Amino acid sequence: MGFLDSLFGKKCPACGAKGARVTPIETRCPNPACQYFDPSLGRQEQPAAQQPSQAAQSSVRGKSGFIPQEGVEIRYRNFQGQEKTFKAEKNSLRRRKNHILARVAPSGEYIALSRDRIQNLGEVDLVLPTAMRSGAPWPSGRERQVLNYHKKHGSTSSLYEQIRARFPDW
Length: 170
What we know:
The longest helix is centred in the last third of the chain and has 13 residues, at 141-153. The protein is 24% helix and 18% strand. It has helices at 5-8, 54-61, 121-127, 141-153, 158-166, and strands spanning 21-22, 27-28, 71-77, 83-89, 94-96, 99-103, 110-114.
């Protein structure tokens, strides 16, 4: 018996299914059509008493039925030319290069929307934090590296202070 066979199982000698447990005493297989089938090895539905309730499932996911507290509507034209309208949480909006990241209803998942395809970019831009708006000055890559380094390490330097003076909201 190999080192990892106890974790992942072997091929069943009767049907060849992966995940079988073969011992000198018995053979157990996850394949329901096999003569050595053992339901404890396969992915079976849990009995109703053991299944989590619908409320518990949604709290586990935490995203189903998401309703934005302070919402903003984003009109978007996708790559196929279809008009889409997303309801997003104002506080979740972030700019990443040429994209706007937003947490949208009803799933509560973050999506990235290309700024070029947002039909009401002016309205969305006003909701963004000041440092992330369209006309806001943007630090160069080297300046962002210095800002992020000192922010991460809680340290400072003269260069960091100069850059911080130019970008106070960063």
